[in-house]
Every structure is written in structure tokens, then in C-alpha cells.
Design brief:
By secondary structure, this protein is an alpha+beta fold. The protein has helices spanning 10-23, 42-55; strands at residues 2-5, 30-33. The protein has a two-stranded antiparallel sheet with strand order 1-2.
């Protein structure tokens, strides 16, 4: 299982914002998605890491 930033309803957002105010912390809501990280060859890993650097993102390769 991997995780992605959750799409919140207005009610869910209100609850999280209240929790942030109560705790003084930033709360990030995640949702679980099916999938397992792929085992990559050295070449695939190098290409993935180069794309991460170019895009300024974290990328995860999954087995389909």
C-alpha cells in the first residue's frame, strides 16, 4: 500500500483545521492506495532519480 494526499470534503477540512488549531501542528491527511513499490534495476533507479531531480518531486514506481 502507498499513500497519497487525501481529497477532503469541507466537513473533513473543518475538523482537521480545528485539530491544527488545538495542537499547533500542521496536519497532513493521507489516503491509502493499492499497490506495491516495484523492484527496479540499477538503470531504472538511476532514471527515476534523475526524473525526481529534474521535476523536484518524489516518485514511486509501482508494479501494475
Amino acid at each position: 500500500m502507498i499513500f497519497s494526499v487525501a481529497q477532503l470534503t469541507a466537513d473533513q477540512l473543518d475538523v482537521l483545521q480545528d485539530l491544527e488549531k488545538q495542537t499547533g501542528r500542521c496536519i497532513v491527511a493521507l489516503t491509502g492506495l493499492p499497490g506495491e513499490p516495484a523492484s527496479l534495476s540499477d538503470d531504472e533507479l538511476n532514471r527515476l532519480q534523475a526524473a525526481e531531480k529534474d521535476l523536484g518531486l518524489t516518485l514511486v514506481a509501482l508494479d501494475a
